[in-house]
Specification:
Elements (H helix, E strand, L loop, with lengths): L3 H12 L5 H13 L1 H19 L7 H11 L3 E2 L6 E2 L10 H10 L11 H14 L1
Helix pairs in contact: 1-2, 1-3, 2-3, 5-6
The structure holds zinc ion (ZN) (2 copies).
């Protein structure tokens, strides 16, 4: 049989599930019979919960958000003329897609870029044509 002292010593290991099945059974058996220790475990579990719930320390969010705003430039997509957060040309864009874009927008050149929705539109356009 475990004594109250044994149970107290095992408590942390019990919480981390590091005790053997045999010890576990003895541990449970003791808790079942001992009001004092079962209350102690309850308290122990509560404390462990509090530890877990405490949010990890991290850099204040709004600072990085503010920095993001500074660096984010709005640009006009040369295709749809919409203001977009970034105009990017996917270098991976298939040749055929570029050709369809140029057919609709003869003045457009690759390095002008286009917004992701436009690229998506022309990608679907290409699929329709195939
Ligand atoms: Zn006890
Ligand atoms: Zn666009």
């Amino acid at each position: 049989m475990l004594t109250c002292q044994d149970v107290n010593k095992l408590m942390a290991q019990y919480m981390e599930k590091k005790i053997s099945l045999h010890q576990r059974i003895l541990f449970k058996l003791h808790l079942w019979m001992c009001e004092h220790c079962s209350q102690h475990l309850e308290q122990f579990e509560k404390n462990a919960d509090v530890m877990k719930k405490r949010p990890p320390t991290e850099a204040p969010k709004d600072l990085s958000e503010r920095l993001g705003e500074v660096f984010e430039e709005y640009q006009i997509c040369p295709i749809c003329q919409k203001e977009v957060r970034f105009v990017e040309l996917h270098a991976k864009a298939e040749r055929q897609i570029l050709e369809i874009i140029r057919r609709d927008h003869p003045e457009w050149i690759e390095k002008n870029g286009l917004c992701p929705p436009c690229l998506e539109y022309y990608r679907q356009e290409l699929e329709r044509q195939q």
